[in-house]
Amino acid sequence: MTTILFFEQLLNGLQFGVMLFLMAAGLTLIFGVMGLINLAHGSLYMVGAFAAAAVAGWTGSFALALVASLAAAAMFGAIIELTIIRRLYARDHLDQVLATFALILIFSEATRWVFGSFPLFLNVPDALSGTVMLPGGIQYSLYRLTIIVIGLIVAAGLFLLISKTRVGMRIRAGENDREMIGALGVDISVLYTLVFALGAALAGLSGALVGAIQSVEVGMGEPVLILAFVVIVIGGIGSIKGALAGAILVGVTDTMGRTLLPILFGTFMEASSATAVGSALASMAIYILMAGVLLYKPTGLFGEA
Amino acid sequence: MKFKSLTKFALCSVAALGLSGAAMAESHGGKVKIGMITTLTGGGAGIGADIRDGFMLAMDQAGNDNIEVVIEDDQRKPEIAVQLSDKLIQSEKVDILTGIIWSNLALAVVPAATAQGKFYLSPNAGPTQLAGKGCHENYFNVAWQNDNLHEAAGAHATASGFENAFILAPNYPAGQDALTGFKRLYEGELAGELYTKLGQTDYAAEIAQIRASGADGIYFFLPGGMGISFLKQYADSGIDLPVVGPAFSFDQGILQAVGEAALGVQNTSQWSKDIDNETNKAFVETFQAAYGRLPSLYASQSFDTANLILSAVAKADIADQDAFREALRAADFASVRGDFRFGNNQHPIQDIYVREVVKEGEIYTNKIIGPSLTDHQDVYAAECAL
Fold first, then answer.
1. Do B282 and B301 sit in the same domain of this protein?
2. Among A230, B12, B179, B242, which is least packed, fewest CB within 10 Å?
3. Which H or E run contains A227?
4. CB A275 within 8 A of CB A267
5. Residue numbers in A near B41 (CB within 8 A)
6. A60 phi and psi angles, rounded to 5 deg
7. Same-domain status, B72 and B120
8. Residue B42: which of A104, A252, A295, A240 has the closest Cα?
9. DSSP A121
10. Which own/partner pairs from B126-132 qualify as long-range (CB within 8 Å, at least 24 positions apart)?
11. Position B36 in a domain
12. Is residue B20 one of the residues assigned to a domain?
C-alpha cells in the first residue's frame, strides 16, 4: 500500500466521520438536554434526503435542495416534538424507544406512500463534481472535500453556539439540571422544541449531503442511526466534543479496517479467503473499538459519570 | 314429524360430510395457496415491489379463482423470513412458497420448507448450496443459478479485452457466488478482489483501492441501493475505466436513480425488455399499463414463476405431489425469455445476453447488443442427484 493511498483512505475516513458527526451531534444534543433516546433521528435524515431530491428535481438547484432539506427536517422535527416527543420526556427510556420506533415505521410508510418504493435521483451538482489534485498527488473528489469542509464548519458553529451564546448557555444549563432552569424562569418547552428542531435539521442536512452520492430510498436512515449511536456511546452521551471525536474515530477505523485488514490477512492467507475473512472482521471493527473504549472509559471518551 | 326430523338429520349429516369434503378440497382438491415472502420495506423494497407486481400481474391475467396468494414482507432479514415461512406453512397452510430475493434468506427458508413437503419456486435467489449436492425435488429455481449472469459477465469481460480486472461484491452467499462465477469464465489477471459489507453505502475506500490497483477494467455485483451508491461515487471519482456487471447492478428500478452515470455500461442478463417474442411484448406492455413503470428483470422472473405455477395447476392437482412436480418440471409455459427449460437440478438452461444502458426519451433503460452464452447451464448440476 502506497503512502498516497494511505492518506487518501485517511481522508475518506475523515469524510465518513464528519458525516456521522452531523447525525450524532443532533442525537447527543437531544439526549443530553432532554434525556430522550430518539430512534426516529434516522427518519429525519431520510426526510432531509427526500426533500432535497424532490426540490432538486423541481428546481435543478442543489443549494435550494440543501435549504429544503434543512427546512423540511427542522419542520418535521418541531412537529413531532410538539405533538409526540414532549409527552415522552417524563417517561422511562423503554417508552421513548417504543414510541420513537413507531415513528420510524410511520415515517417510512408515509414516505413510501408519497414517493413510492423506488430510489429517487439526486446527484452531485456540476460545480462540485469531479476531482481535485491535493498537495502530495492525491486525486480527491471535490464533493467529498466539500462535505468535510461543511461538516467542520457546522462543528465549529455548534461549539460557538453552545459555548458563547445565551441559547447555548441555556442548553448547557438544561443538561445540568432540567428542573432548576425551568424554575429560574427559562421557558423550557420552547428551548426543547428548538434543540429538537436543531438536531433534526442537522440530520436532514446530512441526509441531503449523503443522498447526492448514495441512494435516496426509504429506510436509508436506519443503518446510519446505528452508527450514530455507536459514535455517541464512544464519545460520551451528551457531549458535542465527544460526538466529534467519536465520529472521526469511527469513520477512520471503519475505512482503514476495510482497506487494511484484507491486506493484512493477505500476507499469510490465500487471496480470496483473505478478502472474505478481512472484510468480515472489518465490519466488526467499530464494535470492537466501542467495546475497547467502554472497557477503559465506561462513560465514553468525554462523558461525565 | 319423525320422518321430517330424520330427513333433517340425514340432510345435516350430508351437509356436514359435504362441508368436511369441501374443507378437504380446500387443502387438496383444486385450490392452491401460495405464500410469497419478499422484501417490501427498507433497502431493496423496490426489488420486492417488482417481484410482487410481476407475479400478481400473471395471476390477474389468468384470473384463476382457485389460487390464493398471501404476501408477506421479510424486511431483508433472515430471522423474519424464517418466522414468516413457519407462519405461512403452519397457520396459512400454503402449498407453494416463493418470492425471496436474497440468497442468505433463501438459505434460511428453503431447506426447511422443502423438508416439510412444500414446493419452493425461486423467482430470484439461486445460491450454489441449493443447486449442487443440496438440490431438492421440491425446489425449483425459475430465475438462474447465482453464478450464471456472472459467468456471462466474465466471458464478456474476456471478450471485450479486460486483462487486469478489479472485482468486487458484497460479502454474502450471492456475492461469493458472483465472484466465483465471474472468475470461472474470465481469462485475464485480477488487479484486486474485494468483498464489501452487505448494505454498505459508502465506497470511497474501495474506489481509492481501484484507482491505486492499476486495473484496466472493473466488474462489480452490487444489487439495489448499493449499486446506485457505487455508480454515483464512481462517476464522481474521476476514474475512467470500463465497467461490466450483471443486470442486477443496472436493473430498471435503479437506473433512474443513477442517471447519466450508467449510460453505455454493459451488463449481462437472461432477460431484457427488447427480447423479441409475443409473450415478452405483451408482458412489457401490460406491466407498464398496470403499474406505470417499465418492468425490471426481477419482475420478468416472478412473472415467469407465476406462469409456471399456473401451467402446472392446469395440468395436475397439487394434492398429487408427484404429478404436480412433473408438471412443473415440464416447464410447459410461454416464458418472456423465449425458450425455457429446466436442467436435472431444476435450475434453468437458458441464453444469457449482453445489454447496454441507453436513454430512450427521458427514461434510462437497457438494450440487447448481443448474445453472451447460449443454452447455458450451471456447473453444479452435475453434483445434483436428481
1. yes
2. B12
3. helix A221-235
4. no
5. 108-109, 112, 218-219
6. 75, 5
7. yes
8. A104
9. P
10. B126/B347, B126/B378, B127/B103, B127/B173, B127/B174, B127/B177, B128/B173, B128/B177, B128/B180, B128/B380, B129/B173, B130/B106, B131/B345, B131/B347, B131/B378, B131/B380, B131/B381, B131/B384, B132/B345, B132/B380, B132/B381, B132/B382, B132/B383, B132/B384
11. yes
12. no
Q: How far is B13 from chain A (nearest CA, A)?
A: 50
Q: What is the pLDDT of residue B21?
A: 38
The residue-averaged pLDDT of B272-287 equals 94
Same domain, B285 and B326: yes
Classified as helix, coil or strand, B269 is strand
Task: Check if the interface score ipTM surpasses 0.90.
Answer: no
8 A C-beta contact, residue B165 and residue B216: yes
Residue A79 burial by Cβ neighbours in a 10 Å radius (0-12, 13-18, 19+): middle
- Single out the residue of A102, A108, A123, A93 nearest to residue A45, CA to CA: A108
| Beta strand residue intervals within A129-231, DSSP E | 131-134, 138-141
The residue in chain A having the minimum alpha-carbon distance to the alpha carbon of residue B197 is: A283
Q: Does B228 contact A214 at a Cβ distance shorter than 8 Å? A: yes
Cβ atoms < 10 Å from Cβ of A269: 15
Q: Which of B197, B54, B36 is nearest to B109 (CA)?
A: B36
| List of chain B residues whose C-beta atoms are within 8 Å of the C-beta of residue A211 | none
Which residues have a Cβ under 8 Å from the Cβ of B128 and sit 6 or more positions away?
B145, B146, B147, B173, B177, B180, B380
Phi/psi for B62 (5° steps) reads: -75, -35
Whether B49 sits inside 8 A of A213 (CB atoms) is no
Residue owning grid cell 462535505: A147
Residues of chain B contacting A144 with CB distance shorter than 8 Å? 204
Domain co-membership, B105 together with B180: no
CA distance linking residue A231 with residue A219, whole number of Å:
20
Q: Are A73 and A48 in contact (CB under 8 A)?
A: yes
Q: Is residue B375 part of a domain?
A: yes
Which of the four pLDDT bands, split at 50, 70 and 90, describes residue B4? very low
A98 CA to chain B: closest CA distance, Å? 19
**Residue range A173-182, pLDDT digits in tens:** 887 787 888 8
Based on the domain organization, do B216 and B333 belong to the same domain?
no
Alpha-carbon separation of residue A291 from A25, A46, A232, A295, A301 (angstroms): 21, 29, 13, 6, 12
CATH of the domain at B185: 3.40.50.2300
Is B154 in contact with B173 (CB distance < 8 Å)?
A: no
Q: How many domains does chain B have?
A: 2
The pairing of beta strand B96-98 with beta strand B243-246: unpaired
Q: State the smallest CA–CA distance between residue B41 and chain A in angstroms.
A: 7
Same domain, B110 and B212: no
Minimal-distance CA residue of chain A relative to B212 = A5
Residue B61, all three cell numbers? 391475467
For B342, phi then psi, to 5°, come to -95, 145
Residues 6 or more apart whose Cβ sits within 8 Å of residue A155: A18, A21, A25, A240, A244
How many other C-beta atoms lie within 10 A of the C-beta of residue A90?
8
Could you give the CA distance from residue A7 to residue A17 in angstroms, rounded to a whole number?
A: 15
B285 lies in the same domain as B320 = yes
- Is B176 within a domain? yes
Residues A17-44: tens digit of each pLDDT: 999 999 999 999 888 888 889 999 999 9
Backbone phi and psi for residue B343, each to the nearest 5 degrees, phi listed first: -85, -175
Same domain, B224 and B255: yes
Residue in the structure block whose three cell numbers are 465506561: A298
Its domain, for residue B307, covers: 31-144+275-342
